[in-house]
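Notebook entry, cofactor series.
This is the third protein in the set we're modelling with a bound small molecule. For this one the ligand is pyridoxal-5'-phosphate. I'm keeping the input format identical across the series so the outputs can be compared line by line later. Sequence and SMILES below, as received.
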Amino acid sequence: MSESARDLARKLLSGNGGGSVGGRTPTPAASVPSAGGQPSTPRPASTAGSGHTGAAGPRSSTPTAAAIRTVRGPGRQFADHPDVAATVQKQAAIAAISAQSGLVNPLFLPRTSPNDTVIRALDTELVNFSAYNYLGLSSHPRVVQAAKDALDQYGASASASRIVAGEIPLYGELEQRLAGIYDVGDAMVTTSGYLTNAGVIGFLLREGDVAICDSLIHGSVVSGTQWAGCRRINFRHNDPESLRSVLRMSRNGFDRALVVLEGHYSMDGTVGRVDELAAIAREFDCAVMVDEAHSFGVFGDHGHGIREHYGMAGAEVDIWMGTLSKALGSCGGFIAADADLIAAMKASAPGVAMLTGGPAPSTIGAALAGLDVLEAEPERVRRLWHNARLFNAALHERGLNVGESQGTPIVPVIVPGEIRAGFVSATLLQRGMYAGAISAPAVPVGKERLRFFITSEHTEQQLISAADLLAETIGLAENLPELAVAG
Ligand SMILES: Cc1ncc(COP(=O)(O)O)c(C=O)c1O
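Returned structure with ligand:
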């Protein structure tokens, strides 16, 4: 190879100048649109329908320089993708503000301890309100030991999807207990709460169907409706009359309709009016799904969730969904429902059971032990509510704005303005307390807040000191000019 040919090859392989050889931009075959606007490259027959999107084995020929070039034109690269660009810009602005002000950036705070009421970070100890470890189970010795036992017996990974991996008894044991708690036919555990909502709704609904959602519903449900290709209509948060009027106007335009609610709303600390809303859904021949992510382990005398709280029958809701990652102190999701529905989803629902690995054995071992502790020590739930009442009362006494929250263990403290909320969070961090600031798009502009998760393990002294420090810091922040964080 001559020197100039070698240079050119090097350039092409490194991506520099690969887009232009001799002044012309080569068009890779894979990017030629077909009549339908899709890439014209045919899918290899061996992978069609298998769920794989890439080649199954080694490539048969060396990729062309054009196919591996890394520099693409404006609008074709990810660096100028609006969400990528806005996020990068915003994170840089936050880092710059932290650097200028000398305050620590509370985002992605490096932590070296369990996520308990006191955490170790920044070479110091912080009183922590940012963990939804409601019952202090994630580092409970029985939970940790059960995770270790499962790890020793079954290894670190399920290493395949359940349908072909062989079932380990831990899955079935947890599923039977969850089905019993919800008084329904069966249950299924999964690797992720987010994917459970997305995958279950993605599997059950399709074009011609509708999901009718509380306006504060979690993003994972929204993802599910996008996955499903169904319509999504919101009704006013927790408002039975709004649900009724949406159903009156729209129910007849769709085939299947699923009303989706939460037991305990994670940004606002409101309690889902699940019993009333489910009854209205039934009047209009709709199915009902309830997300118990923040209500399982929190509501009901035994922590069995919103069903126990309202004394509902299991069958009043079609799909009880929950997570293992919050009060149970582990990781993953679950649904509890009719046995046939669960059997179908276990065998066929992509992302929750099919085409995805089974949950790691240690996570299921931990969740089972978490459930054991919950059953053995219902006083944890009582302590949780005692602490929630104490903290809410302390905030009220100090005149702080807790929005629409209802005195539950999720306590939003409204600090309007992204900069102000960030300043309060960073100042608290400086003074030994960790509570996350939340801004748009997670909450509406002007309703920025700090969110406090109260647990059964906080002490009264921690709660009262936090309320004092918070009132003082919010007082300081009131004098700050409101600037928008770029992005
Ligand atoms: C209401 C709600 N549903 C689902 C999820 C997703 O659960 P996971 O974190 O277990 O994936 C969350 C997560 O915070 C949530 O708040």
